[in-house]
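Page 37, continued from 36.
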C-alpha cells in the first residue's frame, strides 16, 4: 500500500465547456482543482523548495515559516528573490487571507497544528485550498513509516495541481535514477545503528518511525535506533539513547545552536562516554532542509552513506 495516492484527472463540464479537473489525495482528504492555483503560499524551507524546483515561483505570492527558525541558504534565496516572507513562523489565518491566497502548501507541524486556527477546514470558507505534506499525515491518520516515496508523491501531486506534471515526472524519474545508480555501487556491511539528534539537552528531540530521516538512514545502509518509536519528530530520553548505543549520530543543523555545539555537548558529557558514536567520534551533519522531505533528500542519502561507509 502506498503512503499517498496520486491524483486523477477528469473532465468537468463548466459553462458548456470541458475543463480539466484534477483530484489529488491529501492525507485523508481528496482535494479537487478546476484550475492551477495562481496565488499560492508555501510554509517552511523544504516545502518552498518543492515549489521552486517545479518552477512555480510565478504561481506564488509568498512563503512563510522560515526565518523565525532557520537560515535561508544561497541556493534557496536565488529562487525566491522576488517573493516576500509573509510570516517568520507559522502564519495566522489573517496572514493567508490578507495575501488573497488561493492555495497553501503546508503540513501538520509544518505550518499547521491539529486543532489550530490554520487548517484545511478553517481556510476553506476563504477559498484557500490546502495540500498537506505527506510525511506529516501521520499526525491525523494511520500511515506507513516514512519513505522516500512520500517526497516523490508530493512532487507528483504538486505537478498535477499546477499543471506541470511532465516537469514533475522528469524530476522524480531523475531522482529515482540518481539514487538507484548510487546505491547499486554502494558497498555496505551490517546496518549501522544511527541516532538522529535534532535538538535539546535535557531531553533530545529526534526522528521516529514516521519522520523522513528514518527513510534516508535506511537508504544509506543504516537503521534508525528509534525505528520503533511510533512518532514523527518527538522527544525521547537520553537513557533510551545510551541503552540503544548508536554507532553514528546524525545532527540536524538549524537554529541558534550549531551542529558543532550539539556535537560538543555529546562528546563532553560523561553520561554519553560509552556510546560507540561518541567513543569513535562518528557524527554526520544534515541541514534541516536535507533531513525533511524535499528536493535535497537524495543528496542527504549520499552524505549519510559516505559518512557510514566511506574511508
Amino acid at each position: 500500500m502506498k503512503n499517498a495516492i496520486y491524483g486523477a484527472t477528469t473532465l468537468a463540464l463548466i459553462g458548456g465547456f470541458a475543463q480539466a479537473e484534477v483530484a489529488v489525495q491529501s492525507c485523508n482528504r481528496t482535494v479537487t482543482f478546476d484550475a492551477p492555483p495562481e496565488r499560492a503560499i508555501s510554509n517552511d524551507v523544504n516545502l518552498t523548495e518543492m515549489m521552486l524546483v517545479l518552477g512555480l515561483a510565478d504561481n506564488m505570492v509568498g512563503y512563510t515559516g522560515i526565518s523565525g527558525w532557520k537560515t535561508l541558504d544561497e541556493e534557496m534565496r536565488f529562487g525566491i528573490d522576488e517573493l516576500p516572507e509573509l510570516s517568520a513562523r507559522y502564519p495566522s489565518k489573517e496572514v493567508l487571507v490578507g495575501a488573497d491566497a488561493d492555495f497553501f502548501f503546508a503540513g501538520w507541524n509544518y505550518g499547521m497544528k491539529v486543532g489550530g486556527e490554520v487548517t484545511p477546514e478553517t481556510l476553506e470558507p476563504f477559498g484557500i485550498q490546502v495540500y498537506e505534506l505527506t510525511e506529516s499525515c501521520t499526525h491525523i491518520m494511520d500511515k506507513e513509516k516514512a519513505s522516500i516515496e512520500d517526497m516523490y508523491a508530493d512532487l507528483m501531486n504538486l505537478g498535477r495541481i499546477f499543471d506541470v506534471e511532465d516537469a514533475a515526472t522528469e524530476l522524480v524519474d531523475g531522482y529515482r535514477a540518481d539514487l538507484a545508480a548510487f546505491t547499486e555501487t554502494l558497498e555496505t556491511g551490517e546496518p549501522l545503528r544511527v541516532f538522529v539528534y535534532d535538538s535539546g539537552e535535557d531531553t533530545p528531540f529526534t526522528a521516529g518511525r514516521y519522520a523522513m530521516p528514518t527513510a534516508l538512514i535506511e537508504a544509506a545502509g543504516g537503521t534508525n535506533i528509534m525505528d520503533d518509536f511510533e512518532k514523527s519528530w518527538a522527544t525521547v530520553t537520553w537513557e533510551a539513547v545510551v541503552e540503544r548505543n548508536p554507532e553514528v549520530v546524525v545532527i540536524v543543523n538549524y537554529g541558534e545552536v550549531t551542529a558543532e555545539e550539539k556535537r560538543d555537548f555529546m562528546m563532553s558529557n560523561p553520561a554519553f562516554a560509552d556510546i560507540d558514536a561518541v567513543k569513535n567520534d562518528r557524527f554526520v551533519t544534515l541541514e534541516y532542509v536535507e533531513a525533511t522531505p524535499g528536493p535535497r533528500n537524495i543528496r542527504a542519502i549520499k552524505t549519510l552513506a559516505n559518512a557510514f561507509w566511506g574511508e
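The first strand starts at residue 8 and ends at 14. Flag for discussion at group meeting. The first helix runs from residue 45 to 53.
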